[in-house]
Amino acid sequence: MRLDPVSLKLFVTIVETGTISAAAEQEHIAASAVSRRISDLEAVLKVSLLQRTNKGIEPTSAGLTLLNLA
């Protein structure tokens, strides 16, 4: 299994900024595209990486593991 480096970079940026919209703005990409890439990444890995709330995101334990590897 190969992971897309752009999606991994977006994932790291999301965790660092705390929201998908802030990550999208920082990386100059539409928030919907960022969300789609993360959903695709979660589908490939068959695990939830982010806990989405109305206040932002929190990485799951799997997300923290991926963050350390990315």
Description:
The chain is mainly alpha-helical and 70 residues long. It is 64% helix and 11% strand. It has helices at 5-17, 20-27, 31-45, 61-69, and strands at 50-53, 56-59. The chain has a two-stranded antiparallel sheet. Helix 1 packs across helix 2 (20-27), helix 1 (5-17) crosses helix 3 and helix 2 (20-27) packs across helix 3. The longest helix has 15 residues, at 31-45. The two termini are 15 Å apart.
Please tally the β strands and state the result: 2
Could you say which structural class the secondary elements and strand pairing correspond to? mainly alpha
Helix tally?
A: 4
Output mean pLDDT.
Answer: 93
What is the H/E order?
A: HHHEEH
List the uncertain runs. none
CA(first)-CA(last) distance: 15 Å
Strand line-up in the sheet with most strands: 1-2
* Helix percentage: 55-70%
What is the 3D shape?
globular
- Main sheet? 2 strands, antiparallel
Strand portion, in percent?
5-15%
Radius of gyration, in angstroms, nearest whole number: 11 Å
Characteristics:
mainly alpha; 2 strands; two-stranded antiparallel ribbon; 4 helices; 70 residues
Can you lay out the helices and strands and say which pair or pack?
Elements: H1 5-17, H2 20-27, H3 31-45, E1 50-53, E2 56-59, H4 61-69
Helix pairs in contact: 1-2, 1-3, 2-3
How would you summarize this macromolecular structure in one to three sentences?
By secondary structure, the protein is mainly alpha-helical.
